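Thread amino acids onto this structure.
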């Protein structure tokens, strides 16, 4: 549970920093994303989730920790 809260906190720090540093660019990016078809967003979200899972899995030991 502690790792989950730490990860959520880190995500908020990164997202907040991006909005604070590049507010106009983020506004344009949001408008561009809103024009994308749902299928493209779904595929992108799934790819990001899988990549995130793989990164966490590898950092936690990956195959050396017994795999799944």
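Threaded sequence (68 positions):
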């Amino acid at each position: 549970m502690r790792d989950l809260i730490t990860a959520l906190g880190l995500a908020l720090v990164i997202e907040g920093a991006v909005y604070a540093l590049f507010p106009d660019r983020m506004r344009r990016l949001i408008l561009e994303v809103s024009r994308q078809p749902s299928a493209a967003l779904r595929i992108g979200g799934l790819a990001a989730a899988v990549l995130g899972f793989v990164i966490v899995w590898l950092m936690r030991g990956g195959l050396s920790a017994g795999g799944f």
